[in-house]
Design a protein that fits this description.
This protein has 330 residues and is mostly helical. It is built from 14 helices and no strands.
Length: 330
């Protein structure tokens, strides 16, 4: 598929998912009411304007931002580790964020402290993996991956301990956060600049990513400074993941599936693939969140459940039909 056609379709999907999210819910909002509120000419029921601008718009924008961050981070991680099964959480970033968030919940702190604690935990995990994987020797991809897996296992044990000692009245909120929850997501004013920076940085190093995907020896032979590039990719992907997890909790499969969907459509150039992944990842998470809050309305489901239910069969289909996954490329 030509990039122009693909990006046009992705932009249309983005607009459609945003409009669907804004008009769907317990309180039905028509297209006419939506346009009237957006244009500022709505003078009827004030409840409609409040629902749109104070509840649905922040949540919808947070869902899109989180999905875009995860898809972008997943694409970067798959290049860094040269592993088609790599996702934004493979190096333990989400475990550190979850530990920080659960500690804030257990202490009875407010939402501001919760998001700050989650981001701090993610950064701590990032620094631990980065520092320990370097050690006294050289930094290899396998060493980085093994260190991340061990750190993630350690965070998992801490999370289990926190859940075991937490009071029963707080368990529901903790479990929802661990499965991905956008019900209390704030307006992503701090996350949008991170997404913009990540996109610009990813496009800027896109050519180097294309070369690195063929192997470190090939990249070095073609004049790429491999070690600084790997460090930058890791730090950038970790920052994107930490921001996404802080905003929406642990939402799975978006960062894993979306890059593969685009590669299956023939998009290999990372200067195009990564921006396209951001659009597709954001749109998919908006659609999943819309289903999460409308499927059993007025009850809400954790959005991570929907992404897993969608992501598992999609990924199996991709594995069945794709003949050249990223890790098999020469």
């Amino acid at each position: 598929m030509r990039p122009v056609i693909l990006f046009t379709l992705l932009l249309l999907l983005t607009v459609a998912s945003l409009l669907l999210s804004l008009t769907s819910g317990t309180i039905a909002i028509t297209w006419q009411e939506l346009l009237a509120v957006i244009s500022g000419t709505h003078s009827g029921n004030e409840l409609t304007g409040q629902v749109l601008m104070e509840l649905r718009w922040p949540r919808t924008l947070a869902a899109f931002t989180s999905g875009a961050l995860l898809a972008l981070a997943g694409g970067l991680m798959q290049v860094l580790l040269r592993n088609p099964l790599a996702d934004p959480y493979v190096l333990g970033i989400s475990g550190g964020a979850a530990t920080g968030a659960l500690l804030a919940m257990l202490s009875g702190l407010g939402s501001v402290w919760l998001h700050g604690s989650a981001f701090g935990g993610a950064l701590l995990s990032m620094l631990l993996v980065f520092g320990l994987s370097h050690g006294a020797g050289s930094w290899t991809t396998s060493r980085l991956l093994l260190t991340g897996i061990v750190i993630a296992a350690g965070w998992g044990a801490v999370i289990g301990l926190l859940l075991a000692i937490s009071p029963e009245q707080g368990l529901r909120g903790m479990l929802f956060w661990l499965m991905g929850d956008l019900s209390n997501a704030p307006m992503p004013l701090g996350s949008l600049p991170v997404l913009l920076f990540g996109l610009l940085a990813a496009v800027a190093i896109g050519r180097s990513l294309n070369i690195l995907a063929h192997g470190e020896q090939t990249a070095g032979a073609l004049g790429i400074s491999v070690k600084p590039l790997r460090s930058f990719i890791y730090l950038l992907a970790s920052l994107l993941t930490a921001t996404a997890v802080t905003l929406a909790g642990s939402v799975g499969f978006v960062g894993l599936v979306v890059p593969h969907m685009l590669r299956l459509l023939g998009m290999r150039d990372h200067r195009l693939l990564l921006p396209a992944a951001s659009l597709l990842g954001g749109s998919l998470l908006v659609c999943a969140d819309t289903l999460a809050r409308t499927l059993l309305a007025p009850r809400q489901l954790p959005v991570g459940i929907l992404t897993a239910l969608i992501g598992v069969p999609v990924f199996l289909i991709l594995l069945h039909h794709s003949r050249s996954l990223h890790g098999e490329e020469r």
